[in-house]
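INFO  loader      accepted 1 record
INFO  loader      residues=236
INFO  predictor   begin
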Amino acid sequence: MSDNPSDKDTTNKPTSSKSQTREELRTDRQLRRDLRKRLKLGEDVGEELLACEGRIEVLNRELLSIEEGGHEIFLAAKETISPKLNYPEKKKELKLKIQHVNDEITQLQNRLIEIKSDDIKVSSLTKEVSMRKLELDDLESEMKALLQFNHTQFLAIKENDKQQQDLDQQIESLEEEKKTLNLELIEANENFNMQEISVIQEKLSVVKDKIRELTMPEDPLLGGLEDEDGDPFIEK
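INFO  predictor   done
INFO  writer      dumping tokens
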């Protein structure tokens, strides 16, 4: 028999994880039975029961992953496949946010009535109301996703959308900078200012590289991408 401690840890770890998971399953199954009885008696425990069902589903998958030898991979993905976990807490938090934004909209609309003769203030408050309504739409969409047990996926899509918006803004800003530099380059060429031409060309090169990185990452198998926006005034 090996005296290597690491061998013992490797042998005992799956058994320990399986025992712990089975114990959690027993606890949640007992809780599910109790909640079903309370629900039949008319108690408002529907959300708690849904959350319990979600935990049992995840624990069953975890137990299967231990038996199949893929427990570490399962643990890495556990949060993603657990949309029902913490369901009551998430729903309560979203309800509070929605109520808060609704209250803000009501207050702003009341202020609009009070200052309807002041066009400048009305315009400013109207924009603020529109922003709050967009925020409310976003929260209500998130609540709908939560009720459909799709909250994790919704947040992932939302984060991806935000990242794409940030990327689009960066590209747009760089494109504007490139246009400005091209105009400056035309003027420098017209004035035969060689020093300024050189400086602007360096700046243009940096901007074009940034745009290329954001829009079309270089494939190492294809080599560098051809610069299609080369300076038309400089002979190649």
